Amino acid sequence: MEKITSHFVNLFMIVLLPPIIFESGFNMEKKPFIRNIGTVLTYSFVGTFIAIIFSSSMFYMTGSLGITYEFTMKESWSFGSLISATDPVAVLAIFKQMDADENLYAIVFGESIFNDAISIVMYKTITNLGTDDTEVSTQ
Q1: Alpha-carbon gap, residue 129 to 118, rounded angstroms
Q2: Cα(139)–Cα(59) distance, rounded to whole angstroms?
């Protein structure tokens, strides 16, 4: 089963995901995006990291308090990084329908692209960490 999962992940990351990202970037209005790149990067990096930290901490604390199933720190951070990426498809569709400001559209669109990438990198980083231990041995 692990081999099938590994092949699916590779297929998704190498074959399916690049055309989706390329199409999004190709059809994007470039001038508003470049004009707002600082805001886009700030919202995507800071916002995604805040979402990861908050959701992971809450998930870990609720387990520690016995409210939910208790997960390890690594499992909590993995879950937090998975759910931290937002998908504003509905918001962007409404923006297009309402003919919203192009700067607002570019900020939301750009932020969604970058926070997906940040979440993928964080998830891969966390799952590749060596141990689940949260305690450091002094011996």
Answers
A1: 17
A2: 31
The secondary structure of 45-103 as a DSSP string is: HHHHHHHHHHHHHHHHHHHHTTSS----HHHHHHHHHHH-----HHHHHHHHHHT--HH
Q: Is the pTM of this model over 0.85?
A: no
Residue holding tokens 């990084």? 81
Task: List pLDDT tens digits, range 83-120.
Answer: 988 778 888 889 989 999 999 999 998 888 888 889 88
Q: Where are the domains of the chain?
A: 30-127
Whether the Cβ atoms of residue 33 and residue 40 lie closer than 8 Å to each other: yes
**Which one, of 10, 14, 16, 28, lies nearest residue 113 by Cα?**
28
